[in-house]
Write a structure and sequence with these properties.
With about 1000 residues, the protein is of the alpha+beta class. About 30% of the residues lie in helices and about 15% in strands. It contains 32 helices and 42 strands. The strands form 13 sheets. The protein has a 15-stranded mixed sheet that branches. A hairpin with a 7-residue loop joins strand 10 and strand 11. It is elongated and about 160 Å long.
Length: about 1000
């Protein structure tokens, strides 16, 4: 075939029999130079002929593997070759005409005839379509095999670049392959060319090629299974890593199976790179350069041999800088001018919208999307200089609608949003619901004013309401119904409605009506009360106790001087409740807290109902000690002695707490029995921790303790009433002289802390009597007696558990294990130690759950926030503080996944457990397969489970409970997600 091509033949035929192979072509006859070339190994006469394929002088020599005496018949010369190089003239063949014939008898003893027949038959029947693809002269190659049907391969040119390779057997077409081929003449080799060919495939609606129809209407470019490299004929062992075919007159290896590594070939690779890049313009003009075609081109992730990388670089550079990259509107543009996003965004945000949102003067274009995610086309798009613009960018721009203290609102974006129709906004809401709902990302957009109200203005979702039939919608921010009811797409309407709900839009109910009334008439700076409102408020809380929280920041109470105050700023006393607070705080309205205006006593609402409502919404009915820092403590310097040292820092492991009683200082200035009674009852009801001030800068220092400021104030003031009408300091007071309403319990710690009766006892026999009583009861002193009283105050089951633990500890004995023969055992252990296995390591592949550690890190922060109280992190099962702390001061705990059956990983789906309960939950969980159902049915904060064969409960904060239930709801929806053509769900 090489000789046929070089002699200008257009047709060639092989004839194979059991005795020989015959080959004929219609090229020019042999001349003397041909005879010399074909009989001189490595020195063909075509070595200086730049048009000849066989100019390298090795082609014909391969035939001697089959025949020792090949014969050549030509109109000019007829001869056979012996001893590889010796031409011997023979008689010409009859009926030869102008053709040239080669005969190869199978007479090589190293290659039996039957084997030669089988090998050549396999080669002929498997003749590649690409064998003719890059030849300029040969248009058909046929074969005739003894005992088999005739066959041929034809090259048909339909247009300048469209070539068809047709394979026929027995006169019937068995295969047809179409290619786009582009050629360019080699500058240094006259009449030689480099070529690139892209395989074509018929579209589904086309069965055969129609010359009258445009090529793009019938066919598309597809990737080659293996991109072949040809030096006229395929170089079978050459690998380009490309998905299309290349040809160049390379210097090949001796076997012609691969391209030789030589500087002579480098200009050809450079010219091929330019040709591949330039061919894209013609492919575009033919209508074949679309997103799918990009998958045929080499991307940056393709593994390509180094000498072919120049082709990839040229193609990517051409796509980046020339109008070649497919766009969303089916045109083409330079990739570096394009933007890319999900198809869902492009269906909502037009190119004009994008120019407004990005503040661009020239309207940009969207790049086309790849037909499939993670495909070669997708990787090619990612290899280009296309700028990404996704839902996060959209949310960020919408965030500019509100503005901030450092940035004015974006008026252009506001005007753009105002120009949009309700139907478009519905589409936007539906899109945002689908995109943000996957990651629960509504937090980022709930503060954006993108909800259109019935009056055409825009507002944030929170504080807006869906329209209803209620006549009292005036004063409410009502959403336009068309935003979730227009159009024919039910799913879009539903998603738009769900989005509005996610960002805070609510149905109007009584609670929401009241909330709106509070915002309109009882917020700071806009007090406009309606006499009927209070009754409405009371009825709401009576019907729904959870509604009490909405009144906390509303100024719903009038005080004596005509001003209005929040519930937490007023206190209750007669006639609403007997608290004594009027006496303690005073009846004047100089400072907070304030008494109610007198008119409330004559209100139509009963005092008991009014009191119950006031208490529910946060009015003060009792006083309690308040925690503050030690900065104003009388013994501040002693408490902070460690902190005052050079270089000592205060960290999160530090403690800084002191306690005071609000209003106590003023109450002590003008004390009376009623004020004293309030103080006495408050202290009796307060926990013991309010009696101490505590400070340490960090965990490296011991906590310093002093009596709290509250204790100091009570110790030094004369506030305890005695039966003689006098007030005295606690230390000088006597219990038997306390008036009625001052219950005395010697076991109360606060009495000891303020030194109650200590000085009086020195002057009486009471101390002696108490000591005698303690001794008579078998106690060493009064302290021991007080401890016994505390123990007696415990519940029976707590006392029993205490004794059982004491007895259990007393009965425990550590195991003893002593060797019978210490010397012999030591010898044996020493022998075993000497032959112990060397400590070695090896790298092994293991499977890793992707993203799990990142989620666990988030879970750790989340759980610490949820289950830390007063500096202690609690276990959700045993409800006790974690047993120890790490060197950084943080409590150690285990983050255990709660419901492993969920489709995705969520940081809310973890428990904070101590090591013991973590092990029980993971390895002795009797309710493991029922956890999801049990949790979904949970009504309360504690989930009943069986751990290590014992009934236990897992405690959840209300926040954790709500978060996890939402996570389960979203996770269940993700199970039914449907994959779309563009790779999204």
């Amino acid at each position: 075939m090489q000789n046929a091509q070089d002699t200008g033949a257009t047709e060639a035929v092989f004839a194979l029999s059991s005795e020989m192979l015959v080959f004929e072509h219609n090229g020019r006859p042999f001349d003397k130079g041909d005879i010399e070339g074909i009989t001189n190994i490595g020195k063909g006469t075509k070595a200086s002929d730049e048009e000849a394929i066989g100019r390298f002088g090795v082609g014909f020599k391969a035939v001697f593997a089959y025949s020792e005496t090949p014969r050549i018949f030509s109109p000019t010369f007829s001869f056979r070759i012996e001893s590889l190089v010796l031409p011997i003239e023979i008689k010409g063949a009859p009926n030869l005409g102008s053709k040239t014939r080669f005969e190869f008898p199978f007479n090589n003893p190293k290659k039996p005839a039957d084997r030669a027949l089988a090998e050549i038959q396999e080669g002929l029947t498997g003749l590649s379509e690409t064998s003719l693809l890059f030849l300029s002269n040969l248009e058909s190659v046929g074969w005739e095999i003894e005992g088999a049907e005739k066959g041929e391969v034809l090259r048909l040119r339909h247009s300048t670049h469209h070539i068809e390779i047709l394979r026929q057997v027995g006169g019937e077409a068995t295969n047809s392959s179409h290619f786009l081929r582009f050629d360019q003449e080699v500058e240094e080799l006259k009449n030689q060319s480099v070529s690139v060919a892209f395989p074509l495939r018929f579209l589904a609606e086309s069965a055969s090629f129609d010359e009258a129809k445009p090529l793009a209407k019938q066919m598309r470019i597809l990737p080659a299974e293996i991109g072949q490299v040809s030096v006229f004929f395929p170089a079978e062992k050459e690998t380009s890593g490309l998905r299309f075919h290349l040809h160049a007159p390379f210097v090949p290896e001796l076997s012609r199976a691969s391209v030789k590594e030589t500087p002579a070939n480098e200009p050809l690779f450079s010219q091929l790179a330019r040709l591949c890049a330039n061919s894209l313009h013609k492919i575009r003009d033919l209508g074949l350069l679309n997103a799918e075609t990009l998958g045929v081109l080499p991307n940056k992730q393709d593994a390509i041999p180094k000498r072919y990388e120049e082709i990839r670089e040229a193609i990517i550079n051409e796509l980046n800088n020339e109008a070649l990259t497919p766009t969303h509107d089916r045109s083409h543009a330079p990739a570096k001018t394009l933007f890319q996003s999900k198809a869902a965004i492009k269906s909502v945000i037009s190119e004009h919208d994008l120019s407004v949102l990005m503040g661009l003067e020239v309207e940009p274009k969207w790049a086309a999307n790849a037909p499939q995610k993670s495909s070669n086309a997708d990787r090619m798009l990612s290899s280009l200089e296309i700028r990404d613009w996704d839902v996060d960018d959209l949310v960020n721009v919408l965030g500019e609608l509100e503005g901030s203290y450092w940035q004015e609102p974006n008026e252009e974006v506001k005007d753009w949003l105002s120009s949009k129709s309700d139907e478009w906004l519905q589409q936007l809401y539906s899109f945002l619901y689908r995109q943000l709902g996957e990651d629960s990302g509504f937090y980022d957009i709930e503060d954006c004013p993108i909800v259109r109200l019935h009056d055409g203005t825009f507002a944030k979702g929170k504080g807006c309401y869906f329209p209803s039939d209620d006549d009292q919608e005036d004063g409410f921010s009502i959403v336009r119904a068309d935003l979730y009811q227009s159009g024919k797409s039910k799913s879009q309407q539903l998603n738009a409605r769900k989005f509005l709900e996610e960002i805070g839009v609510k149905e109007i109910d009584e609670k929401e009506l009241v909330r709106a009334i509070l915002n309109e008439r009882y917020s700071r700076g806009s007090i406009d009360p309606n006499p009927k409102d209070l009754m409405r408020f009371v009825k709401l809380v009576e019907a729904d106790s959870s509604a009490a929280t909405i009144f906390r920041d509303a100024h719903i109470y009038e005080i004596a001087d005509g001003r209005w105050a929040r519930p937490g700023s007023i206190f209750l006393d007669d006639p609403f409740a007997e608290t004594g607070l009027r006496a303690f705080f005073g009846a004047q309205c100089k400072n907070e807290p304030f008494p109610l205006a007198d008119r409330y006593a004559q209100d139509k609402i009963s005092s008991s109902r009014l009191a119950k409502f006031a208490k529910a919404v946060g009015a003060i009915t009792e006083i309690r000690p308040v925690k503050i820092t030690v900065d104003n403590h009388p013994q501040r310097d002693e408490l902070k002695a460690d902190y005052y040292q050079y270089g000592v820092r205060k960290t999160h492991t530090g403690i800084d707490e002191d306690y005071v009683l609000r209003g106590l200082k003023n109450a002590l200035k003008e004390i009376d029995v009623e004020k004293a009674k309030v103080i006495w009852n408050t202290m009796s009801a307060s926990p013991s921790n309010v009696l101490k001030a505590r400070f340490r800068p960090n965990r490296q220092y011991n906590t310093r303790l002093k009596p709290s400021t509250l204790v100091h104030q009570l110790r030094t003031a004369k506030w305890v009433p005695q039966s003689d009408g006098q007030f005295t300091k606690p230390c000088d007071a006597r219990a038997d002289l306390l008036p009625s309403g001052f219950p005395y319990d010697v076991g109360k710690e606060w009495l000891a802390a303020v030194g109650f009766g200590t000085e009086a006892e020195k002057r009486t026999e009471l101390a002696k009597k108490r000591k005698a009583i303690a001794a008579e009861l078998g106690f060493e002193d009064e302290v021991a007696l007080a401890d016994a009283r505390k123990f007696a105050g415990l519940a029976p089951e707590e006392r029993l558990a205490f004794f059982e633990e004491i007895e259990r500890r007393a009965s425990l004995e550590l195991p003893e294990n002593e060797p019978r023969n210490p010397s012999r055992r030591a010898d044996k252990v020493g022998e075993l130690a000497a032959t112990a296995t060397e400590r070695k390591t090896e790298m092994r592949t293991r499977s890793v759950s992707i993203g799990r550690e990142d989620v666990k890190d988030e879970a750790g922060q989340y759980l610490r926030q949820q289950y830390t109280n007063d500096g202690e992190l609690f276990c959700q099962v045993c409800k006790l503080p974690m047993p120890f702390r790490l060197d950084d001061g943080n409590a150690y705990f285990e983050r255990v996944e709660f419901l492993p059956s969920l489709q995705k990983r969520y940081h809310q789906n973890y428990l904070a457990l101590c090591p013991t309960d973590a092990a029980k939950f993971k390895f002795a969980n009797g309710t493991d397969d029922m956890l999801l159902d049990l949790f979904c049915d949970l009504d309360g904060e504690e989930l009943e489970v069986i751990l290590a064969q014992n009934d236990e409960t897992i405690y959840f904060t209300k926040t954790h409970l709500a978060d996890l239930k939402k996570v389960i709801e979203v996770d269940r929806r993700s199970i039914t997600s449907i994959p779309q053509a563009d790779g999204e769900t």
